[in-house]
Amino acid sequence: MVVSVLSLAALAADGTPLAVALDVPSTDLTTATYTGAVDASDVLDAFGVIVPFTPPDLALLSTGEASSGFPQPGTDFGAIGEGGDRTTLDLALVAPADAVRFEVRINFLSAEYPEFVGSQFNDKFHVNVTGSAWSGDASKDDLGRPISVNSAFFGVTSADALAGTGFDGDAYSYDYYTYYDYTGSGLIGGGTGWVTIAVPVAPGEPVDVAFVIHDVGDGVFDSTVAIDDFRWSTEPLDEPAIIAPPAIDWLTPKRGPIEGGGETELRGRNFDATCFAVLGGNVAEETVFVDSHHLRIVAAPHEAGLVDVRVDCEDGEAALNGAYTYYDVPPDGLDVLRILEVLPWTLPLDGGDVTLTVEGLADGVSVKVGGEAVVATPVDATHLSFTAPPHAGGVVDVELTAPDGRYDVRVGALFYLDEDARLAPGDTDVSFDTGGAPGCSCGGSSSAPWAALGLLLLALRRRS
């Protein structure tokens, strides 16, 4: 497959069907104008697993063909630059007499994840508002960035959460653009999930709201935004706000005793003081809000086994399926066998030396890496060392088995990566922003594959 280049001039058309799909009250709508390629918008009753908040439908705007299912390499409608593949829905509204804000839900998806994370050449989405109460771009995060793969709200990369949109699953087999897949991951893209944008308005006054999505620098690797559930509110608001539901990225430790009392830290996004944790249907004995990315919990009692972890907050809920294990104390007074830490957890393809920190370590414990037995050497009462064998790129499990039958596995404990990963031919001047990652001094062209690899690695490890 090669990228489509369509020479379609931008057209201005009636945007009323799109306005209706995103639930704008007809009594408050003066005009709705759509500007863009014919195929760059759509009205759907579902976009894969993404369904309307207010049925029966939602609106789509895209930098390519809105519902083609093939965002990578995508469709180039011809123009290049700030106006490239620009699609706009402009609504002229009059706020009701009692309204002091409007809210609208958006879900931005982009095929530019993970290849171009940190790059300046990313598709962008804006909500440009002109009104007497407030004017500006309401889509910007706390760092002043509009919605893109670099936005603070871009964090949905699970194939399940993107299923059926075209941004999920494996990369397609195509020719010239194959080299853009720096990671070798086959990932198509990611998204923000549903977030709510709230903007102050003056009661009874006109306000113009323009939803804009566009390419920057090139016309390939498309992005699409779903828009739905526009509504007025009487709740006061001084400045625009982006309200995002919570998300759980990972937790540690991932297991505890059936009697409860196990302390665990949850890491994620958009936590607040209203959040509380639920493990296997049982509300945690204690949930402590540390900051917007960090909760500290004490697990309640539960029978042995794997359970889901859920966080309920005022602005929504989030879950990780099968994320926590309740264990019973082994018989005969034996200690639990448990892998606490794996260092290093990244290896070259030809393998290397690894050290495990282990709880309940005993003589004769055997180790397997990716199903292959390795020779392990005790270092002290809590550490084992071994040489990991060569392996193809990707994540592998590490397994421990004690002579008395105790067993533990750390899923995705090691990540083999190709140290020969390189940029696409000719890409020698792309700047990547690491976002202040601890211990990272990245920049210039050589950092591109590692930035993408790092994001892929984190996503894979969070599933373990």
For the termini, the CA-CA separation is 34 Å
The tally of helices reads 3
Number of domains: 3
Biggest sheet, open or closed, and with what strands and sense?
Answer: 7 strands, antiparallel
Taking all Cα atoms into account, the compactness measure Rg is 25 Å
SS elements, strand count: 33
Mean pLDDT: 81
**Proportion of helical residues:** under 10%
Classification by helices and strands? mainly beta
Give the CA-based shape: elongated
Q: Are there runs of 5+ residues with pLDDT below 50, and where?
A: 1-10, 171-185, 421-464
Beta fraction of the residues? 35-45%
Q: Keywords, please?
A:
464 residues, mainly beta, Immunoglobulin-like, 3 domains, 7-stranded antiparallel sheet, 6-stranded antiparallel sheet, 3 helices, disordered N terminus
Task: Provide the fold topology.
Blueprint: E1 4-5, E2 11-14, H1 16-21, E3 29-36, E4 41-44, E5 58-62, E6 75-76, E7 87-94, E8 101-110, E9 124-131, E10 136-137, H2 159-162, E11 190-191, E12 195-200, E13 206-214, E14 223-233, E15 241-243, E16 247-252, E17 255-257, E18 263-269, E19 276-279, E20 282-283, E21 286-291, E22 294-298, E23 305-313, E24 316-327, E25 338-343, E26 346-348, E27 352-359, E28 366-369, E29 372-374, E30 376-380, E31 383-388, E32 394-401, E33 407-417, H3 448-462
